[in-house]
Amino acid sequence: MVSFTIQNVLIAASDDYATVDVQIVDGVIAAMSTTVTERSRSAGYAYAPNLQAIGTVIDGKNKLLLPGFFNAHTHSSEMWQRGIMSAFPLELWLAELYDFAPLDPEQVYLSALGTAVETLLSGGTSVVDHLVLIPGLELETIAIATRAYREVGIRAFIAPLIQDESLSAGIPSGESAQTHEPYFRTTAATLEIIEEAVRQFHRPDEGINILVAPTGIQLCTDALFQGCIELSDRYNLCRHSHLLETRAQQKLAQEKYGCTAVEHLKRIGFLSNKTSLAHCVWLNDADIAILAETQSTVVHNPLSNLRLGSGIAPILKYRQAGVNVTFGCDGASSNDSQDLLEAIKIGSILHNITDSDYQHWITPRQAVEMASLGGAKGLNIADKLGSLTVGKKADLVLYDLTNLSLLPRTDPIGLLVLGRPTNVVNSAWVNGKQIVADGKVTTINVDELRQELFNRSQWETKRKSETVAQIEAHYRTVMGL
C-alpha cells in the first residue's frame, strides 16, 4: 500500500477551520497534526505537533480536505434515458422507463463507469447502485457493474433491484377490481440469484458490497421481503429499498396492509440500523418515530422527488426525531444528473420553505456531515468511514479553493454547498488509493468513455410508451385526476 502525507491542508474544526498535515498509511488515516492546537483538540483530532512527512508529499495549500461523500441511492443504467423522459409521476414514468430500458450488457458497463466518474467529480467516493437487472442475464448484469466500479476504483454498494409483482400492481386498485399478470420470475428464483451474487461478488475488503434490495412495498410480496431479511442476517448484508416515494404508494399500502407501509415493514422485521430507505416522502409522525426507534436511515433524493412531482420529504422532521439522513442523486433519468453537490445543495435549502423556524434549517456543515458520516451510518460502516478520524479508511476528497466558482474567499464549506461549484475536485482517494488527480479521473480513460457514450446513443425527442397508454386512464381515476 502507498503511504502519503497531505501538508498544510484546511479541514473543518469545531465551528472554524484548522490547517493540518494528514498522514495516510496502508489506506488508513494514520495521524493528523496542526498548529491550531486548542481548536483541533476540542474537535477531537489526534494532536501530533512534530508529524514527519512520510511517502509522497501532497501540497494542500489553499485546498479543503473532506471525507468522501456517499451517493446513497442511484440506478446507474438510467443514464441512457436522461433528458428524454416524459413529465410523468413515478408510476407512469416507470412504465415509460421500462418500455425503453437498455437490454445490452455493454450499456450497463458504460453507464456504471459514467455514474462512478460523475459521482467522484462531485465529491463522492462511494455509490449505492440500486441496479436494474437485465432479465435472463441477472448475474451477468451484476458482474458487469462490479467490473466497472472496480476499474474506476470507487467504493461500490451494489443493490440488485428485485421485485416479484408486475408493474401494474404498483398502482392502487381504488374502487375497481384489478388483475395483474404474474411476474416472469418466481420469488424463490429471485432470492437464489441474490444469494449467488453474494457468493460471487460480495467483497467488502476489496470495496465491492452486495446489498439486499427489494424495490419497495409497491412491487414486492412479504415473501420477497422476508427472504431478503434472511439473506441479510445470514451474510451480514445491508438492506436497501424505496419507501413511500409517492402518494399512490401511500394509498396502496393501506389497500395491501390496512396500515402504513412503515408499520408493516417494522412488523415483518425489515427495518434496522443496516437498512437505508430511499425517498420517504409520505410518512406520518408515527412512521417517523418508528424509523428513529429502528435506527433506519432515510436517503433524501430531492431532485427526483421534484422532477417526478412526488413531494417534499419531511427531512427537518426526521432530523429533529433523531433519524439519520443522507443524500442520493437517484437515477440519471429522474434527476437528470449524478452531481452529488447539486443534490446536497437542493436537499439542504429546499426545506427552508417547510419550516418557518430558521433554527431548524440545515447548515452547510450539517449538510456535509449528512453526505459523509450520514452515508456511512446508513451502510453500517460509520466506524470505518465518514469522517476525518485517525484509524478510519482514507476515502478522501481534496477541493481546490482557488477555483473561480469558490471565489472570492469566504466560508469554504458554505461556498461548496451553497454555490454552484464546477470542476472543484482536485484529488480523491478511496482506501488510500488516488483515483482523481489534478481534477481528472486517473484509473480509466474518460475521453474514451465519453466517445463510447456518444457513439452508442442518438439525438431523440418524443417517443410513445405502450404501457403508459394501457395504465394511464386507471392511474388518473384512482388518483382523482
UniProtKB/TrEMBL annotation:
Annotated GO MF terms: hydrolase activity, acting on carbon-nitrogen (but not peptide) bonds
InterPro entries, alphabetized: Amidohydro-rel (IPR006680), Metal-dep_hydrolase_composite (IPR011059), Metal_Hydrolase (IPR032466), MTA/SAH_deaminase (IPR050287)
Keyword set, alphabetical order: Hydrolase
Superkingdom of source: Bacteria
Domain Amidohydrolase-related: 65-434
CDD domains: ATZ_TRZ_like
One Pfam family per UniProt: Amidohydro_1
PANTHER family: AMIDOHYDROLASE-RELATED DOMAIN-CONTAINING PROTEIN, AMINOHYDROLASE SSNA-RELATED
Protein's recorded name: Amidohydrolase
Biological source species: Nostoc sphaeroides CCNUC1
